[in-house]
Amino acid sequence: MATIRDVAKRAGVSTATVSHVLNGTRFVSDETRLAVTEAIHALSYHPSAIARSLSLRRTYTIGMVASHTTSVFFGEMSRGVIDAISPQGYKLLLCSTEDDPVLVEEYLRILLGRTVDGFLTAAVSQNATTLRLLATANVPVVFVDLTFAGMLGPFVGVDNTGGMHLAVSHLVRHGHRRIGLLAGPADMSSMHERFTGYRRALDDHGIPFDELLVRFCNLTVAAGCAAAVDLLRDMPLPAALIGNDNNMLLGIMRALAELRLRCPDDVAVLGFDEHPWASVMTPPITVVRQPSYEIGRVAGVMLIKMLAGEPVDVACTRLQPELIVRESCGEGRS
Asked: What CA–CA distance (Å, rounded) separates 21 from 3?
């Protein structure tokens, strides 16, 4: 395997010059740069990442901690991050915590042990140990998707409150006033913000809030189905039902099938967040689409700026969601 000394010898320069060409740390003439580049290609030389990180005091690695990396939302967000950081030479280490606070701390320790240059996190809670780890890491941190008291860096996410207001207003325009909500966990910031948007929209449209039309539950299809069945067995039926995320939406559709109810003839359905299957279901589901790719891209750009020592002017960036109208809301009945 070729070494930096082999490259220097073939190009007729010092090892320091080869290092400057590789790392861009000092001016090198075009002629010398060409000679070094040709030698690298001829010898199939691959620089040591460890040696490079030691010389530059950077690993060119960014760690990202997310709750469910298999979801479409986090998959798109990760792609946005990668597209933002790759042109700057950075790679992404992605960890999935499955909403387990023990795994959050474990992955943070692993990433710190690998001396990542910065963090993107969508899975950090108010746990004191977690906050202490981030505070002592001495690396830039950007939070995405979820907020909490005591955050130590800027935040990028979606306008959950406004997105839910869009959803409720769309249903009201179609004649629905008895609108139910599968709200997800009450202690998760994104779910709480959507619940706030739901109540605000009802109030803006002069519809009294009815707590019997709301169910809080875990973000699983099974929990969503059980909550929807419980809600739909009450009489009178809700005219419409909103799922606060994709699993809640699937739970609703499963519950409708179990109870032999039709969408939208018996109950209109609307989901918060897009998924490829939403457009091919019967009927195609109207959703509020989150700009997940753009959330990741904006967060990645923000972190690159912080790594370059540039100021970040906005502490909280909220991107706007989009209502995708399909066929699941019908013409409604009050």
From this structure: 15
